[in-house]
Design a protein that fits this description.
Strand order of the largest sheet: 3-2-1-4-5-6-7
Largest sheet: 7 strands, parallel
Structural class: alpha/beta
Oligomer: single chain
Strand content: 15-25%
Helix content: 40-55%
């Protein structure tokens, strides 16, 4: 089989790499074209058609500034679909782009599968209509999505959560903290605070200064910034001058830290599965008015994956104007060693692990796609 796989950001590339390997195991004759990054390139054995660094634009204003780039990327992907004789298109999140690509695939008679669907249950619910029309099946990685999508008439299957499996595997391969510190020239005199600001330029600009100001109020701890692969080091020099950072070692950093400040996204679930207490941060524009609007637009009570999976507030979510140094530091204080909130959060993490269950998500997704294509 020949597969076209489309991922538009770092987390999608990570999960896409696992999916490509699983597809090759299930289908030894598999070949790939893809939009993604280094993880997918390693699994496919060749470079992406478009690297996600040229695709990962955040927010309306940033997308608007890069509309010519977005249009070029979409045109390139459509041309590849038209000439590549593909048996399937597999989408990984990134809905604004991927659903447009799916529309062309359907016109060409190429079956479309959505692995890691967009969070339409939270907002932009109108996308459900497109998913129902364009996709043969949604391969869900969040257990609560199954009931939601079925209620909307979408064919869906829960395949497990890849973060649960990846964390379990990476935990077995973790370095001792002392080795991690030594390898990155970090001092062992103070416990580490992980600062995980995201993988997009806008996220760094909006979140990182607030996170570092909050962390600076706890001089007994050493903040260390997680640098997402592919981002220019100059950005971190600009927004976090003089602060230690590690590149491509977010898992290890969170596991080696006593607590973390994490930009809302997949990393919040990874942090929970690692068992590191966290505060979820997302400043965006920082506008109180926009926050009040979004409270009415959002279709769910939480935005972070740990809280959504648990169905209750396990971790603090500080969004928009609430993402400021005063509120972030106040929540961080509650989960540091010796604080009462730390134990409560760890108990909540146990409930999240139980809800996710065992997982071989990429393998189950690959088997489901292959079975559907050959039936």
């Amino acid at each position: 089989m020949r597969y076209f796989v489309s991922a538009g950001e770092a987390s999608g590339d990570l999960h896409g790499g696992a999916l490509l390997r699983a597809l090759r195991d299930a289908d030894p004759q598999a070949s790939f074209e893809f939009l993604g990054g280094d993880e997918m390139a390693c699994a496919a054995g060749h470079a992406p058609l478009i690297h996600y660094r040229k695709m990962a634009y955040m927010g309306f204003a940033e997308v608007l500034r890069h509309l010519p780039d977005v249009a070029r990327n979409l045109a390139t992907a459509r041309r590849a679909l038209e000439t590549g004789k593909f048996d399937a298109l597999i989408l990984i999140d990134y809905p604004s782009f991927n659903l447009k690509l799916a529309g062309r695939a359907v016109e060409l008679g190429i079956p479309v599968y959505y692995y890691i669907a967009p969070k339409v249950w939270a907002w932009k619910e109108w996308r459900v209509k497109s998913i129902r029309k364009l996709c043969r099946k949604v391969l869900s990685i969040l257990p609560f999505e199954v009931e939601y999508f079925r209620g909307k008439g979408v064919e869906v299957e829960y395949v497990g959560n890849p973060s649960a499996e990846e964390i379990a595997e990476r935990q077995r391969a973790l370095q001792p903290v002392e080795d991690f510190l030594r390898a990155n020239s970090l001092s062992g005199k103070k416990p580490l605070l992980a600062i995980v600001p995201g993988s997009r330029v806008g996220e760094l600009r909006n979140n990182l200064p607030v996170m570092l100001e909050a962390a600076s109020r706890f001089p007994g701890y050493q903040p260390v910034v997680a640098m997402a692969p592919g981002l220019d080091a100059e950005l971190f020099e600009r927004f976090a001058p003089g602060v230690p950072r590690v590149e491509g070692q977010t898992f290890q950093l969170m596991a080696s830290s006593v607590a973390a400040l994490v930009t809302s996204g997949t990393a919040t679930l990874e942090c929970a599965l690692l068992g590191t207490p966290q505060v979820v941060c997302y400043r965006g524009s920082g506008s109180k008015a926009f926050y009040n609007i979004m409270k009415h637009v959002l279709k769910c009570p939480f935005v972070s994956l740990p809280n959504l999976i648990a169905g209750r507030a396990v971790v603090a979510e500080l969004l928009m104007h609430h993402c400021n140094a005063d509120e972030v530091s106040a929540e961080l204080k509650k989960i540091l060693p010796g604080a009462e909130g730390r134990g409560e959060m760890l108990e909540g993490y146990s409930a999240i692990k139980a809800a996710l269950g065992g997982s071989h998500a990429a393998e189950k997704a690959a088997a489901t796609i292959l079975a559907d294509l050959t039936s």
